[in-house]
Amino acid sequence: MQYSLISSDYDLQRDEYLHLDQGHHLAWGYLSVPPFTSWISYIILLLGNSVFWIKFFPALFGALTIVVVWKAIEELKGNLFALVLGATCILFSSLLRLNTLYQPNSFDVLCWTTLYFILIKYINSENTKWLLIGAIVFAFGFLNKYNIVFLIIGLFPALLVTKQRKIFAEPKLYLALIFGLLLISPNLFWQFQNNFPVIHHLKELADTQLVHVDRLDFLKSQLSFFIGSLLVIISALFALLFYKPFEKYKPLFWSLLFTLAVFMYFKAKDYYAIGLYPIYIAFGSVYLSEQLKEGWKRYLAPVFIVIPLLIFIPMYKIDFPNKSPEYIVSHAAEFQKFGMHRWEDGKEHILQQDFADMVGWKQLAVKVDSVCATMPDMEYTLILCDNYGQAGAINFYSTNKKVTAHSFNADYINWLPLDMKIKDVILVKEDDDEDPERKVEKPLFDTVYLAGKRINKYAREPEIFIYVLKGAKVDVNKRIKEEMDRKKNYD
């Protein structure tokens, strides 16, 4: 299904290019994300770096999430109806949208779901091996996305307020915690060596994006992620409170409340909480399968399976990049009434933000390639971009093997070619560049001219300028090192 949800009118999304380039620069940490995604990118690189494999892995993690929910239903003694209901609810949900993009989010949801499943296994068996397995899953989740820390923050008080607090008297819990810390320690050490860039990244996120997050909108969004399964999730919460066979699982009820409260306190993005819900679909499916067994109620059973399918139909029409930008703009009212075109800046735009981030990249790479063809010697030419999207897209789509784009933005600042003797520069700049004529650079180079422009009104950056700066009069490498130091010190 994942391969049918994206129109050929779209390129890869901005973040995907950054994650793919991380596969060329393996490390224990990055400014933007922990290292797990780079490991997958390296595998994709070995497999040929094609779009098929780029989209395969998030689809795989989505499929594995269905498997984990299926196993959770089996652990809760659910019948075939519960299994089918749970799988249907997970499949026809916002996870399909999430899993169209090669980002850490797909594996994050899988890790949240698996960690809750392991808690169920431990509660049922009290076998301490599940604590060690949980530590491993947490470590992989942490090395994928720090978001999983919120799961632990919400789960800790949830255990304390229920009978399952006895887990804190289990010595092997603390061995598991130490084991988990050991597994994530290489990344923690990398953060320490690099002055904890994650703190700067979170501050920047809070200043530029989270400041626009409305807590009430956050709650409203939670209802939409699994809207076709809303009755199933509500049934799960009711069952966790009042259904006797689920009494021992009550920490999961409180965990939902505590975790959502923490997310709201920090004004987190709404999709950060998606990983919370799959496990509750497992509980709700099992509870409903027991309630709909006998009498007239059994005729309601198919309804619960059909509802996610029916609600998915309008979702398919508005929530996926399966229609061209031209179509979406010409039918803007259909999309804007759902608030689909409000971006992180809090403003309305002509396309959804993710869709606008999937337009114009291949076009940019073609433009840059044409400019590179006019340069006498690319061996001494630096391609310097304003942001990671531009640099990553050029690196992915360029057909010129000598072309490698760089940037001071995000992780690219650590990959600049400091050992390269730079004579010329190709500068890729956004349309809001404060010095479009490059007047500041003119004393530094013999010749400066605008060599090309990529224009695409549907893209997040509608205009991108491509300048050529020939014949450096100064030590460009020294200037680059100075700028790197300034950026790394967050000046």
Task: Give a quick precis of the structure.
With 491 residues, the chain is α/β, with parallel strands linked by helices. The chain has helices at 14-22, 36-46, 51-75, 80-91, 95-98, 105-125, 129-144, 149-160, 171-193, 197-208, 215-225, 230-242, 251-265, 278-291, 301-318, 325-330, 332-336, 353-356, 361-372, 388-397, 476-488, and strands at residues 381-385, 405-407, 424-430, 445-455, 463-472. α1 packs across α2, α12 packs across α14 (278-291) and α19 crosses α20.
What key attributes describe this structure?
single chain, 5-stranded mixed beta sheet, alpha/beta, 54% helix, 491 residues
Structural features, described:
The protein is of the alpha/beta class. 54% of the residues lie in helices and 7% in strands. The chain is built from 21 helices and five strands. Strands 2-1-3-5-4 form a five-stranded mixed sheet. Strand 4 and strand 5 form a beta hairpin. Helix 4 runs parallel beside helix 15.
Helix content: 40-55%
Q: Give the mean pLDDT.
A: 89
**What is the percentage of strand-forming residues?**
5-15%
> Main sheet, how many strands, which sense, barrel?
5 strands, mixed
Shape: globular
**What's the count of strands?**
5
Order of helices and strands: HHHHHHHHHHHHHHHHHHHEHEEEEH
Radius of gyration: 25 Å
